[in-house]
Amino acid sequence: xxxxxxxxxxxxxxxxxxxxxxxxxxxxxxxxxxxxxxxxxxxxxxxxxxxxxxxxxxxxxxxxxxxxxxxxxxxxxxxxxxxxxxxxxxxxxxxxxxxxxxxxxxxxxxxxxxxxxxxxxxxxxxxxxxxxxxxxxxxxxxxxxxxxxxxxxxxxxxxxxxxxxxxxxxxxxxxxxxxxxxxxxxxxxxxxxxxxxxxxxxxxxxxxxxxxxxxxxxxxxxxxxxxxxxxxxxxxxxxxxxxxxxxxxxxxxxxxxxxxxxxxxxxxxxxxxxxxxxxxxxxxxxxxxxxxxxxxxxxxxxxxxxxxxxxxxxxxxxxxxxxxxxxxxxxxxxxxxxxxxxxxxxxxxxxxxxxxxxxxxxxxxxxxxxxxxxxxxxxxxxxxxxxxxxxxxxxxxxxxxxxxxxxxxxxxxxxxxxxx
Length: 420
Ligand code: UD1
Prior knowledge:
Elements: E1 2-7, E2 13-17, H1 22-30, E3 39-42, H2 48-60, E4 63-67, E5 70-74, E6 82-83, H3 85-88, H4 98-105, E7 107-111, H5 124-132, E8 136-140, E9 143-147, E10 155-157, H6 163-174, E11 179-183, H7 189-200, E12 204-206, E13 212-216, E14 224-227, H8 232-245, E15 248-252, H9 260-268, E16 272-275, E17 280-284, E18 293-295, H10 307-315, E19 320-324, H11 334-340, E20 344-348, E21 351-355, E22 364-366, H12 370-382, E23 386-390, H13 393-396, H14 402-408, E24 412-417
Parallel strand pairs: 2-15, 3-14, 6-7, 10-11, 18-19, 22-23
Antiparallel strand pairs: 1-23, 1-24, 3-5, 4-5, 7-9, 8-9, 11-13, 12-13, 15-17, 16-17, 19-21, 20-21
Bound molecules: uridine-diphosphate-N-acetylglucosamine.
């Protein structure tokens, strides 16, 4: 298994380019299932989750061809209705096949994703919405089995603005009979990107990016080309890498509007941010980081996917910071690993109280999930001495060539094979 070896303490300098958003590319690729006609998707990040999505789509009968960051999909001959456990267990986003398969083929069988390291993560809201659209759903033998000769438009009010739940219901509604109005939905930019792609395919969608989305069902969708939006979580991670090392880093190719809440918090910590034409940001820090209070919230609030990275900064900030995680109940698995590096963090339910220390100490640590891994890498960049992050396969699910991009900024970081 691969590990990331970091010698900390070098301020990062230079320019880094952000790739396509994993969380936008996943639903966009899944949306190929909605009809025939060639779909050409560019700026798809080459990360493990997208490889898994490609495998799932191929298994369902989609012709999938990948050339670098371009994925070409043709879904005229989709016949299989089953997303098996072996794939779903490695990537929860496989649930995104449910809505498209059901609405296109009248039936879908998707393995129940089950829990994962960061929480129980149910999909009840996806199922409730589809049921309101007329689907008959049984959960048996670990599978969600859904049937509907044709879904019917409905008014659906979500109890919580679930991201993939909103995406599943939008895709299902595209081919439903009549109009579906979705209320209290997620407003994440990735949902707007999915809707932009669906609209290019001939879907009729109004309200993406607000908390009410209306979809008028159409008979079929056609092919289309689309370029995936930049990854705001990757961009945020590089901004924090510049900030934690006290460097001077320009993060290019991101949409700064998507990072507003996070920028505010980083600035509160004493980091200088200069926006560059809405397409990039320069990060500089010459004074010690200051403590800050942060609460994760659905977009446009502070993203839970940047919580672990932010905690690395809090660990070396002057004073006492508080991080409150409101989205996932179990998302503090990086805390015991940060303790190993000398961080002073007390967890009390959804709150983590972080007493900043002047310097972390490099140590062997273990990644528990995708974003926690990124938090540990940031901590390693700021720590004294050597940090070895193991279980890097979590990182590879969502970050493209992270160590190469950090090396180009001057970081002493390498991918190495674990010696057992
Ligand atoms: C998506 C993102 C993930 C991000 C998360 C929150 C993708 C592929 N993944 O995950 O990176 O961390 O949004 O921004 O886009 N919930 C229910 N019932 C449901 C569905 C969700 O109770 O039916 C709860 C979850 O347990 C969790 C909260 O809602 O506490 C948010 O989950 P959700 O927005 O669904 O996250 P994902 O779509 O899985």
